[in-house]
Automatic annotation (TrEMBL):
This is DUF192 domain-containing protein. InterPro entries: DUF192 (IPR003795), Saro_0823-like_sf (IPR038695). Pfam families: DUF192. PANTHER family: UPF0127 PROTEIN MJ1496 (PTHR37953:SF1).
Length: 135
C-alpha cells in the first residue's frame, strides 16, 4: 500500500476535496475519519487544522466539541456531499445534531465556511463521497 494512502487508528488519509459554493469551486485538503475511534476523537486534543484543511466524519450525524481548545466551523452533509446545514464559529464544550438526512459532518477551521463559500446547498466533492447518492 502506498505510504500516502496507508493509515492507522491514529492518522487518517489526506486528499484534496472541492467545495462548490458561492465563490465557485475551491480546493481544500481533507482528512477522513471513517472508523469509530477516528470519528469519536475528531479534532479533540489536536491543534486547529491549517487553513484550507478539514476533517470529514464519515457516517456521522452529530458532533461534540468536548475537550476542544478552539472554535470550529461545521457543515452537515447528505450522502452525496450536499450541505444540509452549517454552523460557523462553534465553541468548545458544545454538541450538535445534524438535520434529517445527515450522513457526514465536515469540521473546518473557524472562518473556513466563509473563505470556501460553503453554505446550505453547496456541494463537497471528494473520492470518499463518489458513488453515493442522497437518500
Amino acid at each position: 500500500m502506498d505510504e500516502r494512502t496507508k493509515h492507522t487508528s491514529t492518522e487518517s488519509p489526506r486528499s484534496m476535496a472541492l467545495a462548490y459554493g458561492r465563490h465557485g469551486p475551491r480546493r481544500f485538503r481533507l482528512d477522513l475519519a471513517d472508523r469509530f475511534w477516528l470519528r469519536f476523537a475528531g479534532l479533540m486534543l489536536r491543534r486547529p487544522p491549517p487553513d484550507e484543511q478539514g476533517l470529514l466524519l464519515m457516517g456521522c450525524a452529530s458532533i461534540h466539541t468536548l475537550f476542544m481548545r478552539y472554535r470550529l466551523d461545521i457543515a452537515w452533509l447528505d450522502a452525496a456531499g450536499r450541505v444540509l446545514a452549517c454552523v460557523a464559529d462553534l465553541g468548545p464544550w458544545r454538541a450538535r445534531l445534524g438535520p434529517r438526512g445527515t450522513a457526514h459532518v465536515l469540521e473546518l477551521r473557524v472562518g473556513s465556511l466563509e473563505a470556501l463559500g460553503i453554505e446550505v446547498g453547496s456541494r463537497i466533492e471528494h473520492p470518499a463521497l463518489q458513488g453515493r447518492s442522497a437518500a
